[in-house]
Design goal:
- The chain is α+β, with helices and mostly antiparallel strands.
- The protein has a single domain, classed as Trna Endonuclease, Chain: A, domain 1.
- Helices cover 27% and strands 29% of the residues.
- The chain is built from three helices and seven strands; from the N terminus they run αβββββααββ.
- The strands form two sheets. Strands 1-2-3-6-7 form a five-stranded mixed sheet.
- A hairpin with a 4-residue loop joins β6 and β7.
- The longest helix is centred in the N-terminal third of the chain and has 18 residues.
Amino acid sequence: MKRIKMNSNRKGDFAEYYAVTWLWDNGYEVFQNSGCTGPIDMIAMDKKGEVTFIDVKTFKPQTRGNKLSSSTAHSRTKKQIKLGVKILGFDPETRKLRFVEHKE
């Protein structure tokens, strides 16, 4: 797969578009943040009406092995922790997403 260089805002937009379609495919209704700042990128609601606040982060490939760095994906702000925001990690190499388990 050919790599395309993008600025960080463009990478974030790309990750969020994949996140929306992934969430739809997994049975969620998705409501995106209408601004470009804030602790939440989107709100997802499942069929039971359970609401999840989501912040999408792009994982960075580590220099060793085939693993992805999760250091940024695990870090949430104090406000995000208080709100119960979940990090949805995006791997730009494979275009796969996964919810990150938080240790706080």
